[in-house]
Amino acid sequence: MLAASLSLVAWGAQALQITSFSPQGEVARVRQVVAKFDSAAVNFGDPKAPAPLSLSCSDASVTKGTGRWTGEREWVFDFERDLPPGVRCTASVKPGFKSAAGAELTGTKSYQFNSGGPFVQNLRPSTYEQIDEEQFFVLFLNGPATTASVQANVWCTAEGVGERIPVRLIEGAQRAEILKGLGLEKDAARDPLSFATLACNRRFTSGSRMQIVFGKGVATPSGVANTVEKRFDFKVREPFSAEFNCERENAQAACLPIRPMMLSFNAPVPRKLAAAIRLKSAKETLKPQIDGGAEGAQADALVNSLQFNAPLAENTAFTIELPKDFKDASGRPLRNADNFPLKVSTGGMPPLAKFAAAAGQVCGSAVWHRGAFCRRPRIGQPACAAARDAAQRGGCPACAGPAGGHRHSQRASGQGEHAQAPHRRGHHCLVPQGAALRQLCGEPQAGAPRRDRPPAQGAG
Q1: Do the beta carbons of residue 382 and residue 411 sit within 8 Å?
Q2: How many angstroms separate the CA atoms of 207 and 192, rounded?
Q3: Which residues contact 81 (CB under 8 A, 6 or more apart)?
Q4: How many CB atoms lie within 10 A of CB 99?
Q5: DSSP string covering 162-206, please?
């Protein structure tokens, strides 16, 4: 009995076992195999240490890789690339493998795993993008999937529709055009079954929500099927519409003539078509300004907005007219086309815009001159000198010159602070005098401290 017990203890001391092996079963992404042992299996650092396991897979072309010991108790095998779907592998213990101390490897003799069925790695368009009412989709799969299983197990759902919407596969020249547009033609040529191009068999309502469902059962050519359902949510774009904007003194006021009128679209419009939009009044017809300028613009370029530059005639009624058959780049008609020709109008110049500044003055926010606001001039600056001179001779800096044919206006003031001034080229010129001139030029009022100088020492 004693001899038998000693022999069992000696045998147990010589045994070597695998305590952990991964992966096992179905695993979507396999790049490495790891085996861990309960005791030292090799002398770590020994370049001649043998591999404890042999690996074989159903697709020999994807089994290429390198095995190595990462420690005296751990062995790993790295595949050259992730296993594609549908690959089954078996890791078997090598007969006669012993540790450096002579212990035999006992226990489980083999381990199985597979890479599962196909799944979606990426798709176009992305889920954060709004889609067309008849959108084409491209699914990037982690490996080949049969077209029959894709058509049978991928479907669409739509908001307000209580049934599955089948998909149709995009084939031939149309598929080639889609893939080329995404720069995928070369990848798809090497592995065509890894790229599914499809569309839903229903036109979706603008502004609604829908889903692409990648269901269970999509299978590889070897017959390994996907076992996990995946859903992708999308928002269908809103109907094509145009929106007018302009700056106003308040919500009920007409547009400021010193600021541009803008027209924006919620979908791209061919530049050539947008350039044909006109702003018309009884006296003139204006062309729009489009980002990028007219010269050098590509004929097939798309735009999302345009504007009619200021200054515009004040107190004038305009209409914005669209060209015939105005549509977006997808061919959709304008939802609010009944609003066009759109009636808009400008009001009078705002009060600050009626003070003329000297030619060449830097632009800012206090005085209006030839289509731009100009900063309030300070003492000693040319604008103040010009304003003083204009006040003395009854003119204004922006309108100085021959007065032949000019109309005059008078702005009443209890202090008599504004003098008569000429009206020229649509500018209403009021010449500041007295307190108004001092305020324009930054001069202090009587008894008030100067704003452009620091207070005197000890001033309270």
Answers
A1: no
A2: 33
A3: 31, 62
A4: 21
A5: -S-EEEEE--HHHHHHHHHHTT-HHHHHH-GGGEEEEEESSPPPT
Given a contact cutoff of 8 angstroms between Cβ atoms, the answer to whether 123 and 139 are in contact is yes
Residue 94 to residue 110: CA distance in whole angstroms: 9
Q: What is the dihedral of CA 112, 118, 122, 124, to 10 degrees?
A: 170
- Whether the predicted pLDDT of 449 surpasses 60: no
Give mean pLDDT, residues 253-282. 95
- Tokens read off for 444: 């202090």
Report if pTM > 0.70: no
Written as one letter, the residue type at 375 is R
Tell me if the bond preceding 95 is cis, omega within 30° of 0: no
* Residue 180 phi, psi dihedral angles, 5° rounding: -65, -40
Q: Is the peptide bond before 144 cis (omega within 30 degrees of 0)?
A: no
Choice between 48 and 14, residue whose per-residue pLDDT is larger? 48
Distances (CA, A) of 198 to 123, 139, 258: 11, 8, 52
* Separation between Cα atoms, residue 185 and residue 270, nearest integer Å: 27
What is the predicted pLDDT for the residue at 67?
A: 94
Tokens in use for 225? 């099927």
